Amino acid sequence: MELNIKELSNGIRIVHQEVTHTRLVHCGFILDIGSRDETKEQEGLAHFWEHMAFKGTKKRKTFHILNRLESLGGELNAYTTKEKVCFYASTLKEHYGKAAELLFDITFNSTFPEKQIEKERQVILEEMAMYRDSPDDAIQDELDEMVFENHALGRNILGTEQTVGGFTQQDFFDYISTRLDTSRLIFSVVGNISFQKVLRGIEGPLSQIQPKRSLYVRSGFNSYVPKIKTQERDISQSLCAIGRPAFSLYDPNRFKLYLLNNILGGPSMNSRLNLMLREKHGYVYSIESSYQPFSDIGFFGIYFGTEGKTLKKAQSLVLKEMSKMANTKLGTVQLHMAKEQAIGQMAMAEENYAALMLVYGKSLLDHGKVDPLENIFNQIRNTTAEELQEIAQDIFNPDMLTFLTYTPQ
């Protein structure tokens, strides 16, 4: 399927793929701004902005924003990560124009009404309390803080009670004015619509946006020190999080680590960690490892919960599986099966057109292009057992891992 990309004179880019065997269109703005781009005093501001985009524009109140697509059976949504803010929608193809116009309005014309800030402040404080009451979420956030100590990548996307409690209308305007860069902003569309119709619905308004270049430069992280920490919590089972920095978005080894992570503790039930800790020993209900690349560094982590009496055994088994991958080269059949599994998962993910729309936007932002999936498949197919073992010896080195454990009081 053909991919269309157009860059406007102000630097904003539009990426589109037509898919004729669906009734829907998925579209969204992806901005290269995230929680890591906040100062310590601004912690939580990007996520608060995501909330406030739905609370009023120059021509719409909250009800009109929320009702515009929902009343037509569409969906409007947004999310914030450490490096991106996204506003996106899914709707029947005949309502694409309404979706595009609404997304443009909330992205560029939000007014951040003071009364709505006060209301939403309470909503976010409740969201924080909910996460604090969820040890599974809390341990992941705290592991980030330990791995990326004293750096914006380690801070909670939600912010703190102190920062969120103090934000004013001007803070939002100031943050957007210093961080927004029209050359780092994508409008992405995937669905049953031609490129001409996409442009007809959005090119005019987008062309009116004045070109803007941000002088802001992200601060890198290069001061990792492995740590070990155990704390008692009001929980019924022990939780363990293990992590460390990993490869960035631009590292040629990133797809190899993706494959390695998939073998160790990816989403499939036949991952080595799941087979060993759940299926063989029954120590966990679930265990997963993850690899998340950022623009200048990455993160590798493992999470699981188990009974207090089996905690040490479970931790030992995790390290044993990592050691096996570092010390024993995969056999030809094992490697082939692992590659086919990873490629199959990626191919299935491509069938999710809403997610694909976001992937295209992020890829264009991060790499200046959208790699055909076949190119990624080829990188995975060309990975050797020796390369995987070498990466395992680096990333799975136990002396470089940070350990965080929550135990029952």
UniProtKB/TrEMBL annotation:
Peptidase M16 N-terminal domain: residues covered: 14-160
GO MF annotations, alphabetized: metal ion binding
Alphabetical list of Pfam families matching this protein: Peptidase_M16, Peptidase_M16_C
Coiled-coil region(s): none
SUPFAM superfamilies on file: LuxS/MPP-like metallohydrolase
Limits of the Peptidase M16 C-terminal domain: 167-341
The organism's place on the tree of life at top rank: Bacteria
Family the UniProt entry places it in: Belongs to the peptidase M16 family.
Entry protein name: Putative Zn-dependent peptidase
The organism of origin for this protein: Algoriphagus chordae
Species lineage: Bacteria, Pseudomonadati, Bacteroidota, Cytophagia, Cytophagales
